[in-house]
Amino acid sequence: MKKTVNIDWGKLGFNYIKTDLRYVSTWRDGEWDKGILTEDNKLTISEGSTALHYGQQCFEGLKAYRRKDGKIQLFRPDENAKRLNSSCRRILMPEVPEEKFIDACTQVVKANEAYVPPYGTGATLYLRPFVIGVGDNVGVKPASEYIFCVFCVPVGPYFKGGMTPVNFIISEYDRAAAFGTGKVKVGGNYAASLYAHKQATNKGFADCIYLDPKTHTKIEEVGAANFFGITKDNKFITPDSPSILPSITKYSLMYIAENYLEMKVEERDVFVDNLSEFKEAGACGTAAVITPIGGIEYKEKLHVFHSETEVGPITKKLYDTLYGIQFGDVEAPEGWIVEIE
Ligand code: PLP
Ligand code: COI
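Above: inputs. Below: predicted complex with 2-OXO-4-methylpentanoic acid.
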């Protein structure tokens, strides 16, 4: 008999729930072992692990989606594998071969099938692959051993309200340096963001928006998501900068805007003192999906885009198309979907 779990899928937020099995593989003496699935959600590592002291670690986030026909699919896992490896290269960790990454994700989804939310609930199974430097060490240098792990958690919306607009505030802090690690997904960027995030939520905002670290004049990231704006002449605009994490959702939306919605697309500077060029704006990412931005507070003034309560029509179309592709209702571009067999 198939296992069932007692979860109120419609009420899920973005919180940890222990699922049945996770994948763990170790790199030692120059190679990864085969990897295992384990019930144990604790990792035992040396007190000298570089991940603990020097932040030698990186992670990914991707989702498994339940289709109308009951089958399960992953969205562009090869892109997550590539980005994980660009993070690994940046902080001198061994890469995880793309096939191993996709195989690990597939094993974890299959082993936790009961936790893949039903079609129609909007909920998904979030996969969290990560690599950490471990082993006995104390100096500032790359670790001698590494662990690659993938666990999963059923999730609902990341920002409260899902597809209802939320407000953000511009932060005076940076999450990453101009030529630092902003374009890779390493934990240090997120540690650096916690204080600014807390300040924003204390003031009642969903999160903060980071400006470019060099000049503090251009929009970079919306918390843990990328920014996009729709101009009055219907162009999809998204910032270009070496310190932004290259969002897979953002590049997918650029493709969708151009090829499904016949919009013009530009990746270029977005100046914070020129927000009135946009009639709609949004945050996009795996966890955030598309979260409409109601308004942005900058220098104590709130700039409202389409509305603080209603989603703009273009944001809605982008969302419906992306959501449709991810849940298998809209035909996907070649290579975007990996069905779990
Ligand atoms: N920007 C940051 C800082 C993130 O943490 C994420 C999440 O992964 C994103 C953007 C969105 O990237 P993606 O669409 O690949 O999930
Ligand atoms: C994601 O969208 O996958 C993220 O990593 C965002 C956040 C949960 C860190």
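The longest strand covers residues 124-134.
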